[in-house]
From TrEMBL:
<keyword id="KW-0067">ATP-binding</keyword>
<dbReference type="InterPro" id="IPR047112">
    <property type="entry name" value="RecG/Mfd"/>
</dbReference>
<dbReference type="GO" id="GO:0043138">
    <property type="term" value="F:3'-5' DNA helicase activity"/>
</dbReference>
<keyword id="KW-0227">DNA damage</keyword>
<keyword id="KW-0233">DNA recombination</keyword>
<feature type="domain" description="Helicase C-terminal">
    <location>
        <begin position="458"/>
        <end position="618"/>
    </location>
</feature>
<dbReference type="Pfam" id="PF00271">
    <property type="entry name" value="Helicase_C"/>
</dbReference>
<dbReference type="InterPro" id="IPR001650">
    <property type="entry name" value="Helicase_C-like"/>
</dbReference>
<keyword id="KW-0547">Nucleotide-binding</keyword>
<keyword id="KW-0347">Helicase</keyword>
<keyword id="KW-0413">Isomerase</keyword>
<dbReference type="GO" id="GO:0005524">
    <property type="term" value="F:ATP binding"/>
</dbReference>
<dbReference type="GO" id="GO:0006281">
    <property type="term" value="P:DNA repair"/>
</dbReference>
<dbReference type="Pfam" id="PF00270">
    <property type="entry name" value="DEAD"/>
</dbReference>
<dbReference type="InterPro" id="IPR045562">
    <property type="entry name" value="RecG_dom3_C"/>
</dbReference>
<dbReference type="InterPro" id="IPR004609">
    <property type="entry name" value="ATP-dep_DNA_helicase_RecG"/>
</dbReference>
<feature type="domain" description="Helicase ATP-binding">
    <location>
        <begin position="278"/>
        <end position="439"/>
    </location>
</feature>
Length: 691
């Protein structure tokens, strides 16, 4: 045991105090442990010191110097004060120069050593180092551990130097006594550094090699803890039993499938078999279905609901938007027409009376299938006998959501339909608590959506193309990033574009507007009109990003396309090309050849959602794409799921060894790991199981 408390408030750390404590809190640093786990985002290489005699204008240089004389102050014009500190390093002399920071003049003590880093400016017969970062050092040799100095995520009020000193003080306080929580056999097996070596060297690396060793150990911890967390959730789920396994034979399922307007694809059939195997088990299903947009995931949900209802259990289908909930409701009505299965839609803004009636009917079991948004179903509904929960177009089934479901009693089967397909190897990591099925085949007859990246100046030509499509009986979407015009952001709003197009009459009268700020009823009316062809061009925001299925639409236009992520654009593009007709996607942007422009060009070449998601993750990071934080898991700070594949495999293997009892943790390690895992899951997980 160590005599320092990891949860000691930062305020009591040497050099902190109440004011700095508040600044640290802003960085989510509250305790001593938080300081230790506030890892540098980068390192500054101070290895190379450049003598003044070799400086060149425009270069960024490191220098170790002494003060050569008193400061000089120049006031070339009103409100401009230039402070110049003469410095020398034995090879030559120069000035360190600051603008409007006259307090700096008193900071330097003649005779002491300083490290400085800044940009060189040579001119007017002077050699200058402009606005350098600086630090007093005790000798010319001391410039921070062979020169690798940490740069922390920080705010403007908290300088790197102060933050670095606080970390230094904490590490001095810890004195190599931070408690190890990985058993020695595990560290040996995977060649992982001891924890004190790791935390010391991640902050103040002795050299590049020890930094790598430290980073590897701590990245392993991140991946290991994340997977242990998932394993705990899954393990808990594994031991839970459903009331009775569902019957899957003799319930007319084969006949139901035969009566569908299409034959299932091979992939749909395979995934259906996996779902049926789960549902006929006493252990609740906990399955994620992945598949590219348009591969036909909805029908799998329909079939699962049919099985639940035929077993006299209720099913709930949750969608991320009202529009999609409404669409699912209609789809279910269509497929269940002629069967004795009652379906209800729960909407956020249906009248109180109507709503209470529906809630009552769900509670006493008169309703078999409930459709609604996540919020609606989670908040209000009491079930009679809930047997199946489906969440559609959700990145992952959040830790919190499961807790909510458990409170509703029973252990329903859970099926998650993912909006963002990711490669299986990654799915195994990020959905470690779920079984994963992949629908890797498109229904027959689909054509690739031809995709173009065009500048706004081509809008008129685009509009005549759309009119041509309309005259062929097709329809189009135009998506804008905003609902209303905003002064702060220079992007086209849906409302504004709608007004413009309406006024100019470019598409005649058959245009519609849809966005999230409209009432559910208004949205439904517009969607209805679009579906039955009264509206030819639908202008909207991303409320129609996911799930919407109108096979007659053949054109998708995205305004200010640079403002969307790749996976999101792929989802939007997935709204067209759903029928037999040739379809087109136009990404409008000024981005040209900038980074954003290159990103958009990827869309014109790639059509595979898995590959696009991979690119998007490399650009934006996996946490953001998968919405980890939204789902109660913190972002990975050190581990990189692309370059750390080997580490990923090892951490997964380690979790498995614990699960199988091949490796055993002592009580103390368990306790410490538990704390770490809870921390990583932002305290959304209460029980950790190791085997
Ligand atoms: P997503 O996987 O994106 O949710 P949907 O379930 O909305 O896709 O299906 C897209 C379209 O493909 C729908 O119009 C659906 O009726 C149709 N579809 C689904 N499966 C098949 C199939 N096996 N053959 C032909 N069309 C299908
Ligand atoms: Mg869908």
């Amino acid at each position: 045991m160590m005599d320092i408390a990891p949860d000691m408030p930062v305020q009591y750390i040497k050099g902190v105090g109440p004011r700095r404590a508040r600044l640290l809190n802003k960085l989510d640093i509250y305790t001593l442990a938080d300081v230790i786990y506030h890892f540098p985002r980068d390192y500054e290489d101070r290895t190379e010191i450049m003598p003044i005699s070799r400086w060149q204008s425009g270069q960024v240089v490191n220098i170790v110097c002494k003060i050569a004389g008193p400061p000089r102050r120049v006031k070339p014009r009103a409100r401009l004060i230039i402070s110049k500190i003469p410095i020398q390093d034995g090879t030559s002399s120069a000035y360190a120069v600051w603008y409007n920071q006259k307090f700096i003049e008193d900071r330097f003590v003649p005779g002491k050593w300083y490290f400085m880093r800044g940009k060189v400016n040579i001119g007017y017969g002077e050699i200058q180092l402009l606005n350098p970062q600086w630090e007093e050092i005790s000798s010319p040799d001391e410039r921070g551990n062979e020169g690798l100095v940490p740069i922390y995520p920080s705010t403007a009020d908290m300088s790197q130097k102060i933050l670095r000193n606080i970390v230094k003080n904490v590490l001095e306080l810890v004195k190599g006594q931070w408690e190890e929580y990985l058993p020695i056999e595990l560290r040996k097996r995977y060649d992982l550094a001891e924890i004190n070596f790791a935390i010391n060297n991640i902050h103040f690396p002795v050299n590049a090699r020890s930094l790598n060793i430290a980073r590897r150990r701590l990245a392993f911890d991140e991946l290991f803890c994340m997977q242990l967390g998932f394993y705990s959730i899954k393990g808990k789920n594994d031991v839970q039993k459903v009331g009775a396994p569902f019957r899957i034979h003799d319930i007319g399922l084969e006949a139901f499938i035969r009566r569908l307007p299409f034959a299932l694809t091979g992939a749909q059939q395979r995934v259906l078999d996996e779902i049926l195997a789960d549902m006929s088990n006493t252990r609740p299903m906990n399955r994620l279905v992945q598949g590219d947009v348009g591969c036909g995931k909805t029908i799998l949900a329909v079939l699962a609901l049919y099985v639940a209802a035929s077993n006299c259990y209720q099913g709930a289908m949750m969608a991320p938007t009202e529009v999609l909930a409404q669409q699912h409701f209609q789809t279910l009505q269509k497929f269940f027409d002629g069967y004795d299965i009652s379906i209800a839609l729960l909407s956020g803004n249906m009248g109180e009376n109507k709503k209470n009636e529906v809630l009552e009917a769900i509670k006493d079991g008169r309703i078999d299938v409930v459709v609604g948004t996540h919020a609606v179903i989670q908040d209000n509904v009491e079930f009679h006998r809930l047997g199946l929960v489906i969440t559609d177009e959700q990145h992952r089934f959040g830790v919190r959501q499961r807790a909510v479901l458990e409170k509703k009693g029973g252990n329903p089967h859970v099926l998650v339909m993912s909006a963002t397909p990711i490669p299986r190897s990654m799915a195994l990591i990020f959905y470690g608590d779920l079984d994963v099925s992949i629908v890797d085949e498109m229904p027959p007859g689909r054509q690739q959506v031809e995709t173009f990246f065009i500048p706004p100046s081509m809008r008129d030509r685009l509009y005549s193309f759309i009119n041509q499509e309309i005259s062929n009986g097709h329809q189009a979407y135009i998506i804008c990033p905003l609902v209303e015009q905003s002064d702060a952001i220079d992007a086209l709003s849906a409302q504004e574009l709608y007004d413009q197009l309406k006024e100019k009459g470019i598409f005649g009268d058959s245009i519609g507007l849809i966005h999230g700020q409209m009432s559910a009823n208004d949205k439904n009316e517009v969607m209805e009109a679009f579906k039955n062809g009264q509206i030819s061009v639908l202008i909207g925001t991303t409320v129609i990003e996911v799930g919407v299925d109108v096979p007659n639409a053949t054109v998708m236009v995205v305004e200010n396309a640079e403002r969307f992520g790749l996976a999101q654009l792929h989802q939007l593009r997935g709204r067209v090309g759903r029928g037999q007709h040739k379809s087109y996607c136009f990404l409008i942007s000024n981005a040209g050849n900038s980074d954003a422009g290159r990103r958009l060009k990827i869309m014109t070449k790639l059509h595979d959602g898995f590959k696009i998601a991979e690119q998007d993750m490399q650009i934006r990071g996996p946490g953001q794409l998968l919405g980890l934080q939204q789902h109660g898991i913190s972002e990975l700070k050190l581990a990189d799921i692309f370059s750390d594949i080997a580490l990923l495999k090892q951490s997964k293997e380690a979790v498995q060894m614990l699960a199988d009892g091949i490796m055993i943790l002592d009580q103390r390690s368990k306790l410490l790991l538990e704390q770490r895992i809870k921390r990583q899951f932002l305290n959304n997980i209460d029980e950790i199981t190791f085997n």
